[in-house]
Structures are given as structure tokens and as C-alpha cells.
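Supplementary Methods. Inverse-folding protocol.

Structures were first reduced to a C-alpha cell string of length 515. This string, shown here, constituted the complete conditioning input.
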């Protein structure tokens, strides 16, 4: 009698295996058709964009929220907040009672003055920018943030910004964003200034003093920033109503960004706050250091910054780390300034992802570093347009094909799509046209984006970055199926990352099934 259940189980397993094989053959044929469609579109930039616009893109992992907002939105916010425009610097200014000074005009004037409107768009972005003596793309790019920052000084528009970036992502078939944000940390900065910094500073003692002086109070500030922004996004997109906007389906998490051009006591305090916030609120999935890497303070203190992160990583090992490193080009800094930022980020600060990584071939022993990054699955967030505009690095001067050749995981991102006036599809078009990427190459990069997200849970894939076989729980399922087996469903329910990976496979199947 006991044989029959076993026989039935084996028969069922055989049926599932045959069905899985049939499903895989169909999937391969569909993928081949998509590959052929991409090849047909290569000769026309417009046809190529149309193809890539609809292609699933998974996650965008290197995205500054402030830089992702388009200039037109900043102008609208500036007018709503009754800000003034300083005509000499073409920047927003918040004046007491909204009364503009000499040399300033109300921001609302831009709505009736096309010349002013155009000038603000150009000042807030890279639109129409042409380098002039003393003003490089690097300078104009980073200066733009200071020009529109007054429109977000109170975080009152955060929900609008979240809706804007989520809506743009959804239209392009993106499903997950990790947004770089800096919640207000005025209280923490004040404590840091009061405590100061000493040449032989003991980081453990400084951490204890910062906590004793109430640094954790700013966790509530960070939480409130997300709560208010997400609530407003939900209202705009009708996410809790009968007919929610499609953008509601875009999942968002946050990277706590630290301002590295500040004095060391403030950098350490804000980094500590970032680790604390990420430990207390799962919406913060990691930390990052921002501001220009060639900034004098950032260059001088880079080794110290990596030491700070390493110290805090030992205390908060579950907090993920991604770092801007190697966003440099020859001539921006002395040659020895290109030696080791990526290596220190990886080897000292335990970075799991590197943002930009442009100067990798100028690092000491670059091929050893590439091997190390590939072996340890350290992903590089590639920002082609940003690297062109800020660094002047394009085409085969960019290390993207080298990373690819050496097996370092990579994915594409926009960095600051609003300031650059691009979208993620633009970056895929650029990558295909510049490097001749195949559909299989693109699919691998898209899968890499979710694989290296900081979402909690195990991966859907058996072998990291290979994307050939699903984990054992889902090995006999058709990936992305509407009704996974009970074992697979249980696994998916245990992992937010695997859920997003399953959704990505569903989207690929739907995209590739279209004629």
C-alpha cells in the first residue's frame, strides 16, 4: 500500500519536469524572437528607443531623488512656495514674507515670462549646456542642485517628487527604485559641531558621545520624512482607492546619503545616523557617501571616511553599503588621487556596490581589483550620460566594457535623470548603440539590478549572477507564472527580493510573447 503514494509522487514530479522543459523551450523561442526584434531596431535610434522603452528594466539602484526631479517641477514648486529668483545667479531664494529684493523677481513670473522660464530650466539642468572658460560640465551639473534647493527646503514636496519618479519609472517598465535621500539632520550636525574632532579621535568614544547627546532623536525626523512623502505619494496616485494609478506598483526603498564634503565630525555623525536609521526603519536599505569626489575635503579625508564606514559596519553588519567611488577622470585630480578610491571602498569599507567606478583602470593593480570585484560579486552602478556630462568620459574611454569582460556585475542607472534630462531608457539606448549589446546582455543586466538590490530575502537564483537555474524550491516552476507551486509560493513569500525577481520574469515573459 505504501508504494502507491510514492509512485504517484514520482509520476507527478515527472509531469512537472516535462511541463517545465516544455515551458523552457517556449521561453527560449520567445527570447529569440525578442533578440531578433532588437537586431531589427538597431539601425534606427527611434525604433530602438521604442523597443527598449517597453522592455522590462527591473531596478534602478543609483538615483538621487533631488536630481531625478525635472526642472519644470522645481519651477512649479518654487512658484507655489512664493520663492524669489536671483537673476544674477538664476537660483531660488526664500525671502522673509516672500518679498523679493532688488535683483530678484517672484518665481511665479516664470509662468508668464518664457525667457525667465527657459533660463531657469537651463540653470537647473544640463539642457543646452556648452562649456565655457571656467565653467565645465562638472561645475554646471553640481551647481544646479544649489540653484533649486530652496524649493525643497521644508520637504513639503517630497510626495510629489516620489510620484514623479515612480510614474516615469512605471511608464518605462521599471518595478523597483532605490532612491538616495538626505533627511534633515540639523540636530545631529549641531551635536557634532559641539563635540568637535581631535587628531587622535577615538571613533568608539565619539559614537558614545553622539548617542548620549541624543543623535537617535533624528531617527524620528528621518521616519517622518518618509512617512509624509509616502503618504502624499499615495494620495496623488490613489494607491488605497478603487482605481489606483499604475505607478503604485513601483516599489521604492531608500539609501541614506551622507555629505562627505563636511568636516570629519559631521561626516561621522551623519554616517552613524544613517546606520542607526537603516537599523530602525527597513525602508532605509543602505547608506552611501555623496557630493563631488574631487572636492578638496572629500579627497583629503577619503581614507578616513572609509575607516569610519568600516568601524560602523562592524557594529551594524546588517546595514548595506554602496559607495560613490572612482567618479574621477585624469586631470581632475593629481595622478596619485586616482590610485585607490574603489579599492578602499571595497576592501576597507565593505562596499557591496560601487557607484560610477570610472577610474578603475587608473587604480593600482587594476586587473587584480577587477578579479576581486568579480569574485566577490561587487556590482558597479553604471551611469553613462552622467559620466559623459561630469567627467567627459564616453565610448571606449569608459570602463563599462572592461567590467563586462572581466565578469564584474553591472547594471545601468541614470544618477540624476532630471538634471541630465534623460530617462533610464535613454541609458539602455546609449549602451546598445555604443557597445553593440545583445538582448541577452540587456536581460542579464536587468536581472543583475534586482539581484543586487538591497531588498531582504534570498535570491530566486541558485547561483549568484548566473541566472540559469532557479533555487530548488522553484526549480520545476515556470518562472513568473501566475500560480507557482505551493513550495515555490512559500519560498517567494519569505523573500521580498525573490518576489521582485519573480515579477521581473513575469514581465519578461509578457514582453517576449508580444509579436
Amino acid at each position: 500500500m505504501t508504494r502507491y503514494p510514492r509512485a504517484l509522487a514520482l509520476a507527478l514530479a515527472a509531469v512537472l519536469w516535462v511541463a517545465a522543459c516544455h515551458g523552457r523551450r517556449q521561453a527560449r523561442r520567445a527570447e529569440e524572437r525578442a533578440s531578433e526584434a532588437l537586431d531589427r531596431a538597431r539601425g534606427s535610434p527611434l525604433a530602438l528607443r521604442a523597443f527598449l522603452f517597453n522592455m522590462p528594466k527591473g531596478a534602478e539602484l543609483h538615483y538621487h531623488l533631488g536630481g531625478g526631479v525635472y526642472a519644470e517641477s522645481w519651477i512649479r514648486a518654487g512658484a507655489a512656495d512664493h520663492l524669489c529668483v536671483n537673476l544674477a545667479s538664476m537660483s531660488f531664494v526664500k525671502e522673509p514674507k516672500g518679498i523679493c529684493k532688488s535683483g530678484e523677481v517672484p518665481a511665479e513670473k516664470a509662468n508668464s515670462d518664457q525667457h525667465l522660464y527657459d533660463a531657469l530650466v537651463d540653470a537647473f539642468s544640463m539642457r543646452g549646456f556648452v562649456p565655457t572658460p571656467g565653467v565645465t560640465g562638472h561645475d554646471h551639473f553640481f551647481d544646479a542642485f544649489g540653484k533649486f534647493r530652496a524649493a525643497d527646503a521644508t520637504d513639503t514636496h517630497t510626495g510629489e517628487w516620489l510620484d514623479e519618479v515612480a510614474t516615469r519609472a512605471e511608464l518605462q517598465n521599471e518595478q523597483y527604485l532605490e532612491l538616495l535621500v538626505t533627511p534633515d539632520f540639523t540636530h545631529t550636525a549641531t551635536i557634532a559641531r559641539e563635540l568637535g574632532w581631535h587628531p587622535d579621535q577615538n571613533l568608539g568614544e565619539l559614537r558614545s558621545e553622539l548617542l548620549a547627546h541624543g543623535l537617535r532623536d533624528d531617527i524620528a525626523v528621518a521616519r517622518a520624512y518618509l512617512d509624509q512623502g509616502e503618504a502624499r505619494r499615495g494620495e496623488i496616485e490613489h494607491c488605497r482607492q478603487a482605481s489606483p494609478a499604475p505607478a503604485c506598483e513601483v516599489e521604492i526603498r531608500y539609501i541614506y546619503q551622507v555629505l562627505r564634503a563636511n568636516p570629519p565630525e559631521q561626516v561621522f555623525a551623519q554616517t552613524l545616523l544613517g546606520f542607526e536609521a537603516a537599523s530602525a526603519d527597513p525602508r532605509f536599505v543602505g547608506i552611501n557617501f555623496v557630493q563631488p569626489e574631487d572636492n578638496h575635503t572629500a579627497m583629503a579625508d577619503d581614507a578616513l571616511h572609509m575607516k569610519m564606514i568600516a568601524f560602523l559596519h562592524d557594529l551594524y553588519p546588517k546595514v548595506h553599503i554602496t559607495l560613490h567611488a572612482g567618479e574621477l577622470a585624469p586631470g581632475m585630480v593629481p595622478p596619485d588621487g586616482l590610485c585607490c578610491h574603489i579599492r578602499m571602498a571595497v576592501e576597507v569599507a565593505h562596499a557591496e556596490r560601487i557607484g560610477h567606478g570610472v577610474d578603475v583602470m587608473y587604480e593600482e593593480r587594476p586587473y587584480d581589483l577587477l578579479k576581486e570585484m568579480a569574485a566577490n560579486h561587487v556590482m558597479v552602478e553604471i551611469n553613462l550620460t552622467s559620466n559623459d556630462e561630469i567627467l567627459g568620459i564616453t565610448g571606449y574611454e569608459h570602463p563599462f566594457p572592461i567590467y563586462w569582460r572581466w565578469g564584474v556585475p553591472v547594471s545601468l542607472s541614470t544618477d540624476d535623470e532630471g538634471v541630465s534630462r534623460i530617462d533610464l531608457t535613454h541609458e539602455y539606448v546609449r549602451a546598445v548603440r555604443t557597445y553593440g549589446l545583445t538582448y541577452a546582455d540587456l536581460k542579464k543586466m536587468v536581472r543583475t539590478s534586482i539581484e543586487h538590490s538591497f531588498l531582504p530575502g534570498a535570491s530566486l537564483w541558485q547561483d549568484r549572477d548566473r541566472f540559469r537555474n532557479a533555487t530548488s524550491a522553484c526549480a520545476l516552476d515556470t518562472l513568473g507564472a501566475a500560480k507557482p507551486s505551493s513550495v515555490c509560493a512559500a519560498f517567494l513569500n519569505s523573500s521580498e527580493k525573490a518576489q521582485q525577481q519573480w515579477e521581473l520574469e513575469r514581465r519578461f515573459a509578457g514582453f517576449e510573447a508580444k509579436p
